[in-house]
Amino acid sequence: MKLVAGSVIGGAAWAVLPKALAAPFRTGKSGSKGGSDSAVARDAVLAIAFDHNLHTRLVAHGKPLTPYQPSESLLLADGAVEDFTLSGQREQPVTDARHGAGHQTIATGRSSRQLEKEVTVTFFDSLPGFAVLQTRYRNLGDAPLQVTGWRNAAHELADAPGGFWSFAGATHTDRRDWVLPLGAGFNQRNTLGMDSSDYGGGIPMADIWRRDVGLAVGHVEPVVRQLNLPVRKTAGGAHIAVESPQVSTLAPGQTLTTERTLLAVHTGDYFAPLQQYRQFMQADGLVAPEAPASAFAPVWCTWGYGRDFSVRQILDTVPKARDLGFGWVVLDDGWQTNEGDWRIDTHKFPRGDADMRAFTATVRSHGMHPRLWLAPLAADPGSDILHDHADMLLLDKHGAFQTITWWNALTQCPAYRPTVDYYVALVKKIIGDWGFEGIKFDGQHLNAVAPCYNPAHKHARPEESVEGLAAFWSAIHQAVHEANPQAVVELCPCGTVFAFHNLPATDQYPASDPLSSWQVRSKGKTMKALMASRSSYAGDHVELSDHGDDFASTVGIGAVVSSKFTWPKDTDHPAEPLPPGGYKLTAEKEALWRKWVALYQRHMLPKGEYLGTLYDIGFDRPEAHAIAKDGAMYYAFYADHFDGALQLRGLPAGRHRVRDLFNQVELGEVDAGDPTLHVAFKRFVLLQATPLAAQA
Fold first, then answer.
1. Cα-to-chain-centroid distance, residue 343
2. Contact call for residues 634 and 605 (beta carbons, < 8 A)
3. 352: which residues sit within 8 A by CB, 6+ positions away?
4. Would you say 492 and 498 are in contact if contact means Cβ atoms under 8 Å apart?
5. How far is CA 367 from the centre of its chain?
């Protein structure tokens, strides 16, 4: 949100094409109960119609979706200002160096509170049905106005048979599902700020959808913004909006400008608008890096042995992990003296640096890649860094520390140069000196931080810490890759919704402590939309999935397989209560683990194209996912029990042979003109459809 002094509302920040080059664009007039279209912003898919009060209704493909509603409002201490009498409108073709050609409609109005409002709606030809909105409010009166926030893109969709599903890109401390049905009473604030001292941030988009249509909203700013994306079930439908809770004073003659927000209409689930969001932000330079080839190797992590591991336990298990087909050895929590100093625990590595170099050399001698666990921006009580460099701490407006609940540690500010320099030097040592080929950055506090008021940092604005976290990760990613261009940076922000603005500095995201197989799959679908095929999504430890063995959820969505098994027995000192059966690799587990890792490596689905628009994760049953790779189509279906016809969508023309990959059974042939196949399964089935012509 920007406050600008002056008497004229600023124009739109897009270059206007010469009139001779502009295609004609006319506003439409269409009557409706309660109003008429006084101005219309539209593209070939979506129309946003304004009435004389600057309320809007939405029309998709010529079909009205909503009645007129006060979609853009200024929130004052004494109530919302929603009605603005239309006073002007203009239309102009636009072009943008990053987003290309498009069209823009600007509607202006005045309220009885002596406020002028200007709503700018921009459509780009490359993103049909995806509107970028920005609203400006100018105080025309003689008295200051106490602003409590603003609201954009607020719309309610009416109920339809089957109800609603939602996607929320905001973090919640209880680590709830990102994809949820909207039951009676559903109401989520979905803040992109902090949900608690160490949980916050996320993907700046929320979505509600019915079987026939959906609406997505969010912001498209290149840096983090602490907005809310509320979703609630209403008596007659579902409501969604973008809201700012920022309090300010709007002085006479001053202008408040909202963040650029998005409004997108779509069919199917949230995947399509999330793809559009990624495409828009990619043009602004926010794009996932091209992951090194090793980022797709199966991962074995030592966390099954807990913090009280012995080096001998790990090294004795490495040959077993290699034999099963795993490519990574992740040395997890417990190698260090504390969080903050990050010194080697000499009880485990008596020779310090020399023993750490010997450890990585041993892992490589088995043909595997060593990776090290690290939780930066955390300072434990009693650590030297906390005593000697208390200036690094992030402080709130009252001068209080920000705590990291799972470690009983304090948060350091990522936008303070000494903090950045400290961790840049640390990761260079880990990669360049100790010889690790990757780092696993772990902790929910790494996803987002609160505004920082530490006077030692001399922040121009407290929000510099919020916005500076992405720059911190960029510096870390650069330092790691300067030390080893093929190193893998993994970010595991435990249980949070991955912060999109951190994506350009991350080579691999895991499912991040999933609470169920559903979370493995729904998080996977989300990250596939945001990363495309550039970087790596991992299913996290299979022991966290349903029944502790659901590799099918990882392999079927094209994720990297991972395990924290122990061998030949469970540890006597687990870091957390062991599940029934523990983590020990029994003979039965070994056969299953070996089979899944081999299947994963044979087909390598993470390198295929995940086709997220073919199936609706909310409404299609059984739940389905599809991947195209090397001329074949792969399908993964999930249900407790299923016996019936499956539809294999997206098949190229012609006939295809279908094979059950896990059970190694031929299921027959299907034709793309009628791609249905009768299948019975429990829990999952993984299918490969290969064109018959390719087999001739």
1. 32
2. yes
3. 344, 346
4. no
5. 33
User: pLDDT (tens digit, 9 = 90+) per residue, 666-691?
Assistant: 999 999 999 999 999 999 999 999 99
> For residue 36, is pLDDT > 80?
no
Can you say how many angstroms the Cα of residue 300 is from the centroid of all Cα atoms in its chain? 24
Number of other CB atoms surrounding residue 31 within 10 Å: 8
pLDDT at 306 over 60: yes
pLDDT at residue 523 is higher than 50:
yes
Asked whether the beta carbons of 430 and 439 are under 8 A apart, the reply is yes
Q: Taking the complete model, does pTM exceed 0.85, yes or no?
A: yes
Mean pLDDT of 1-19: 41
Whether the Cβ atoms of residue 105 and residue 89 lie closer than 8 Å to each other: yes
- Average pLDDT estimate for 75-87: 97
Query: 470 — phi, psi (to 5°)?
Result: -60, -40
pLDDT the model gives residue 35: 56
Q: Is there a contact between 366 and 327 (Cβ–Cβ < 8 Å)?
A: no
Nearest to 222 by CA among 539, 474, 457: 474
Q: Between vectors from CA 575 to CA 574 and to CA 576, what angle results, nearest 5°?
A: 90
Tell me whether strands 409-411 and 378-379 are parallel, antiparallel or unpaired: antiparallel
Residues in a beta bridge with 35: 32
Tell me the helix, strand and coil percentages in the chain, rounded to 5. Answer: 25, 35, 40
3-class DSSP state of 374: strand
**Residue 500, phi then psi, degrees to nearest 5:** -60, -40
Q: Is 112 a residue whose pLDDT tops 60?
A: yes
- What is the distance between the alpha carbons of residues 291 and 617, in angstroms, rounded to a whole number? 27
Return the structure tokens found at 99. Answer: 């987003």
Spatial distance between the Cα atoms of 394 and 606, rounded to a whole number of angstroms: 38
- Type of residue found at 254: Q
Percent of the chain with pLDDT strictly greater than 90: 92
Question: DSSP secondary-structure letter at 161?
Answer: T
- pLDDT score for 694: 59
**Residue 69 carries which DSSP code?**
B
Burial class of residue 177, CB neighbours in 10 A (0-12, 13-18, 19+): middle
**Residue 380 and residue 404: Cα distance in Å, rounded?**
9
Largest CA distance in the chain: 82
Burial (CB count <10 Å: 0-12, 13-18, 19+), residue 672:
middle
Q: Is the dihedral of CA 41, 42, 46, 47 positive or negative?
A: positive
Q: Strand order of the sheet with strand 39-42? A: 39-42, 46-50, 56-60, 63-64
More confident residue, 602 or 2: 602
User: Taking the alpha carbons of 524, 530, 531, 533 in that order, is the dihedral positive or negative?
Assistant: positive
Element housing 694 (H / E):
helix 692-695
Question: pLDDT band at residue 25, thresholds of 50, 70 and 90?
Answer: very low
Confidence (pLDDT) at 1: 74
Q: Per mean pLDDT, which range of 32-41, 79-88, 178-187, 434-443 is the poorest?
A: 32-41
Which string of DSSP letters, residue by residue, matches 534-558?
SSEEE---GGGSGGGT-HHHHHHTT
Structural tokens at position 556 = 């079927």
